Amino acid sequence: MPAILPLTRAVPLLACALTFSLGTTFLQAEPPASLAPVSLLVEEKSATSDSGAAAVPSPTESAVPLPSSFGGPFGERLKLTGDWFGVRDTLAGSGITLDVNLTQFFQGVASGGNDQAFKYGGKIDYFLNIDGKKAGLWKGFFVTMHAETRYGEDVNGIDGMFSFGNFNMAFPKAGRNVTSITRLILSQSVSENFMVFLGKINSLDDFTLNFTSRNGIERFMNSAVVANIINARAVPYSTYGVGFSVLQDKAPVFTFLVRDPDDHPTTSDLNKLFAHGALLSGTVKITIAPLGLPGHQNAGVNWSSRKFTSVDPTSFANIPGQGIVTGQESGSWALWYTFDQYLWISQSAANVGWGVFGIAGISDGNPNPVRWNMTLGVGGTSFIPGRERDIFGIGYFRIGLSSDFKDLLGGSLAPPGLAQRDEQGVEVFYNAALTRWCQLTADLQIVKPSTKNLHTTVLPGMRLKIDF
Q1: Which one is predicted more confidently, 214 or 460?
Q2: d(Cα 273, Cα 137) in Å, to the nearest integer?
Q3: Which domain CATH number covers 306?
Q4: Is the peptide bond before 172 cis (omega within 30 degrees of 0)?
C-alpha cells in the first residue's frame, strides 16, 4: 500500500497546487511570450550586498555551488518541476542554468490611502545564466538574462504613498500586462581581478542586501526597504550601459558604470541611446566579519547629466504633482550607503541566523524630490523550532523630502491638497516555506504618507511564490 502523506505536509502541497492552478488559469487569456528562463538558487548567507543602483554581473553568480541534483521527492525538491528527467542537471553541468518563478500578490488598503480596496496581480520571472567555459565557449565569459511578465492589478495607485507598497508589481511597466527582457548582460573576465561588461542592465537584480532580498518577491515589499530610494530620481529600472568591476576573491569590490539615463524596460530604443545625457555610477563594496559574523559595507555615488524636474516620474516611487509646470534642472547627484551584519549564526545549521541592515542616502534635493532617506531593520530565519526554513523581517523607513519639493507642492502652482511632509512607515513580514519550492508570505505595512491630507495607510497582504 502506498504511503500516505502526513497532514502537515499534504495541506501545504495542496495549497500550492490550488493557487498555482488559479494563477495559470488566469494567465491563459494572455500567455507570456516564449522567453528562455534562468537563475541560480542562492541561500541568504551566500548573497552579496549591492546598492541597487549599480547592478553588475558578478563572476560568483556562476560560481555559486549548484545542488547535485534538482530531483528528489516532490515535497523536498528545490524546484516544483524537478530535474526534467535529468535534462536540468545536464544543462547545469554544461554551464546553463534555467529558472522560472511565479509570484502572486493579494494586497489591499484596509485604512487610509486614496481608496480602500484589495487587488490581485502577479509576476513571472524568467532567468538564464550561461558560463561560457562550461558551455564550450571560452573562459571568463558569462551571459545573464532576466525577463518578466506582469499581470493583474496592484495597490500602488491607491495606497496614497510616496513609496511603492508593492515594489515588484511596478515593473516592467506599472499597471500594464506586459512581458519584456529587462536584463541581458555580456561580461568577460579579463583577469582574476578585473571584469568588463555591457548590455541591458536591471538596476535591482544585484540588490541582494542580506535580510531585505531583492525585487520584493521573497522578503520586504515596500520600495523604501527593498531598495535605496535616494536613487529614485536619476537611476532607471532597466537601461543600457557598460562598465567594469575590480574583483577580490571573485567578488566585486569596486564597480564603475556608464548608463543611458532613460528607462527602457519594455522597448529597445537603441537609436535613442544617450540622447538625454549619461548616468555615471561608482560603487565600493567591503566584506567584513567581526567576531566571525559576516557583514557588508557598501557605498557609492550616482550622477546624471540629464535634465529633470522634481515632479518627473521615477522607477522607485510615486511622485505626486506630475503635470505641474516647473523649471528643469540640469544634472542630479546622490550619495548612498547600505550595510548588513549578522549578529547570530547557529552552530548546528549553516543557514540559520539573524542580523541587522540599514540603508541611507543624501541628494541634491532639486531635481531629486528626496533630500535624504534612512531605513533600519532586523531579519533572518525563524525562531520557531522546526521552522528553520522560514524567514522574517521588521523594517522602519523615513523619506526626507526636500524643502524645494515641499514648497512646490504646497504653493500656488499645485492643486489643493498636495502639501507634502516626510514619509515614514513600518513593514513586517513572515515568509513560511510550505515546501522548498513554495513560499507563502504574510506582510503588513503601516505608513504615514507624504501627502498631508491623507490618513495613515494600513496595508496588509499575502504573497505566494512558486519556483519551477
Answers
A1: 460
A2: 30
A3: 2.40.160.180
A4: yes
28: DSSP letter: T
In a domain, 386, yes or no: yes
> Which grid coordinates belong to 335?
550619495
What pLDDT sits at residue 52? Answer: 36
CA–CA–CA angle 162, 164, 167 (5° rounding): 160
- Cα–Cα separations (whole angstroms), residue 140 to 52, 128, 189: 24, 17, 5
| pLDDT tens per residue, range 423-441 | 999 999 999 999 999 999 9
Locate 8 and state its grid cell: 502537515
All three cell numbers of 432: 513560511
Whether residue 2 is contained in a domain is answered as no
Q: In angstroms, how far is CA 364 from the centroid of its own chain?
A: 25
Q: Which residues of 283-313 are buried (b: 16+ CB within 10 A; e: fewer)?
A: bbbeeeeeeeebbbebbbbbbbebbbbbbee
The grid coordinates listed for 291 are: 567576531
* In a domain? residue 161: yes
Please state whether 85 falls in left (phi above 0), alpha (psi between -120 and 50) or beta: left
Instruction: Give residue 85's domain range.
Output: 7-467
Query: Total structural domains in the chain?
Result: 1
Residue from 223, 239, 405, 215 nearest 306 by CA: 239
Nearest to 372 by CA among 419, 335, 317: 335
Q: What is the pLDDT of residue 115?
A: 95
Say if 1 falls within a structural domain. no
pTM value? Answer: 0.85
Residue 13 pLDDT > 70: no
CA–CA separation, 461 and 445 (whole Å): 9
Q: Return the minimum-mean-pLDDT range out of 283-297, 356-370, 408-422.
A: 408-422
